[in-house]
Amino acid sequence: CLAALESDPTLAEMGKNLKEAMKMLEDSQRRTEEENGKKLISGDIPGPLQGRIQNIGEQGHMALLGHSLGAYISTLDKEKLRKLTTRILSDTILWLCRIFRYENGCAYFHEEEREGLAKICRLAIHSRYEDFVVDGFNVLYNKKPVIYLSAAARPGLGQYLCNQLGLPFPCLCRVPCNTMFGSQHQMDVAFLEKMIKDDIERGRLPLLLVANAGTAAVGHTDKIGRLKELCEQYGIWLHVEGVNLATLALGYVSSSVLAATKCDSMTMTPGPWLGLPAVPAVTLYKHDDPALTLVAGLTSNKPADKLRALPLWLSLQYLGLDGIVERIKHACQLSQRLQESLKKVNYIKILVEDELSSPVVVFRFFQELPDSDPVFKAVPVPTMTPSAVGRERHSCDALNRWLGEQLKQLVPASGLTVMDLEAEGTCVRFSPLMTAAVLGTRGEDVDQLVACIESKLPVLSSTLQLREEFKQEVEATAGLLYVDDPNWPGIGVVRYEHANDDKSSLKSDPEGEKIHAGLLKKLNELESDLTFKIGPEYKSMKSCLYVGMASEDMDVAELVETIAATAREIEENSRLLENMTEVVRKGIQEAQAELQKANEERLLEEGVLRQIPVVGSVLNWFSPVQALQKGRTFNLTAGSLESTEPIYVYKAQGAGVTPPPTPSGSRTKQRLPGQKPFKRSLRGSDALSETSSASHIEDLEKVERLSGGPEQITLEASSTEGHPGAPSPQHASRSEAFQKGAPHPEDDHPQVEGAESLR
């Protein structure tokens, strides 16, 4: 690896130091320990970053070592520094051109991925406008340049080019993709040719065309061979970018990608492909005039600019050709493995089936389910209005978004991303070329991903079926309002309309928020399989209850009835508390008025003399006043104000009126032991838990027999009258009277003594 550094004594010394650094790196790599199932380097960075840096491997440390080594090399004298940087740069360019089949090319290394294309545009401008250096933008004004971008290009690319080049936005021309034939993510070549002819007729200059070898969204490759012929015909610079350029290093390459080797320039990102951190992107190009490349900024005489290639130079030597090919091949095999597995899974649509060589797999769950399967029935969507079609599209997008988030959590090593496409909607993308080398994705992870997809499909299908039933049940239930929120992936959204709810207002409702917060707490206490959350309606600021994904055995009627009964109970309790507060306030005011009146009457009874300090004491000593303590007590149950005189007389407080029962739901469903709420009570079904047995069914039958009501209990009690051991009616009446605290008829004691004895 270090033969290039051994040809000069100074360089040989530097090579020796590099060998020592590599030895230290290998020693540090051996001292690894396993923590939380992940291998972390023992010599990790101390401080807040310790334990948070991913395991980048030896090749990653080699790339990071290149940055430190570059700073060390920059301290050499100018002549030695020039020789070394030129050697490193030329070797790196030669290796990259040979690996990716780009003959006689030059390279520009840059940190920003789009920077290389901006430099290429400058080179194209200088090449096509000979007087640009002298006249500047006056030349461009007379004959405006045109840059053609595909409609499937990554977002923001055109705006970035105009900002970097100082060109107006009319210089950009967006080429649409195919609409009739071919992939909908490939550039329409026939329409592009028509646009080029129109621009030439208007006096414009077609300057540059940006083609895709793997679009940023779905990984489709344009017809680069046909585009190259069109560019040669009209003298347009052809630039290619995309993730599929990595397959040029493999033995077998598709013809569409292989045509990129004949283009004028291409931008590659070997860092993500090979799992190398802090490695610059590379733009390979072909041009014979070094003066124009220097003016465009593609070449530089500064050693610091040449040292940008050092991390990649070290990494390429460490991996070797076999290591580079093996990593790219492994990523392609992962995508092909997932694609072949998803073809066998029902209800999953793959968007790149026609491109077997694409290392990107994009799939989504679709709602048009076949009618042949009795479990998963299709949602009928014949003769639907555009608004209904839009709602179904948003609903399906919400389900796919939920599926993507679940898969990302369950299989984090897969590196999935959720994206929104204009034509297809929300999809899930698997691009191992950009993630597998960093995350360490293996074939077992792909198999686990497929298993997770299959396990989530029943929930998705049942949720899609139960949405209409949930809507009908809510609309048929008084007090509930169905909220149409297509962005929610659950079975639906519902709002409880209380008595003071202003339906015409879109502002927030504090009383409704309080009711929905209590409803959420009550539903979560039931410990069902459903997930609930509250939030504002997407059309207004009012609170709503969001019901999550559901399984096929969900009892929607019981769920809606429980929501309505619980919300009604919370509202009644809240209203009862408010009424009680008002009654207590009025009772206190009334009691104060009566106490003040009683105090005035007492003063009139006692007279004025008894109020004089000394005279009143003497008068009270000779003739004491026998006055009872009078007060007021407030009965919360009856809501009435009573005197406290009976309490002081009989030394006991009355029982008062029995409070009313707490309101509850109109129906309480008997559940088997181990059966969770909102499940259909199908005996022998999956609603039972693993610990359930046949005895649980017998217990449920006994409970049903015992729940015959008070009539059955009365009949059983009356049937014991003729029994020998039954007590006599007189004894029963006597016992009942004693339990109630009533005096016995034979007793001659007054009622007060009876109350005292009972006390």
UniProtKB/TrEMBL annotation:
Q: Which domain of life is it from?
A: Eukaryota
InterPro entries according to UniProt: GrpII_AminoAcid_Decarb (IPR050477), PDXDC1-like_2nd (IPR055103), PDXDC1-like_3rd (IPR055102), PyrdxlP-dep_de-COase (IPR002129), PyrdxlP-dep_Trfase (IPR015424), PyrdxlP-dep_Trfase_major (IPR015421)
Q: Where is the PDXDC1-like third domain?
A: 470-575
Q: Taking every annotated instance into account, which residue ranges of this chain make up the domain PDXDC1/PDXD2 second?
A: 358-464
A GO BP entry is: carboxylic acid metabolic process
Q: Which residues form a coiled coil?
A: 11-38, 581-608
Keyword Lyase annotated: yes
Q: Name one GO molecular function term.
A: carboxy-lyase activity
- Which Pfam families did the record assign? PDXDC1-like_cen, PDXDC1-like_cen2, Pyridoxal_deC
> Where in the sequence does UniProt note compositional bias of the Basic and acidic residues kind?
696-705, 743-759
Presence of the UniProt keyword Coiled coil in the record: yes
Q: Which cofactor does it need?
A: pyridoxal 5'-phosphate
Swiss-Prot/TrEMBL keywords: Coiled coil, Decarboxylase, Lyase, Pyridoxal phosphate
Region described as Disordered: spans on this chain: 653-759
Q: Which PANTHER family match?
A: PTHR42735, PYRIDOXAL-DEPENDENT DECARBOXYLASE DOMAIN-CONTAINING PROTEIN 1-RELATED
Annotated family = Belongs to the group II decarboxylase family.
Q: What is this protein called?
A: Pyridoxal-dependent decarboxylase domain-containing protein 1
- Please name the source species: Macaca nemestrina
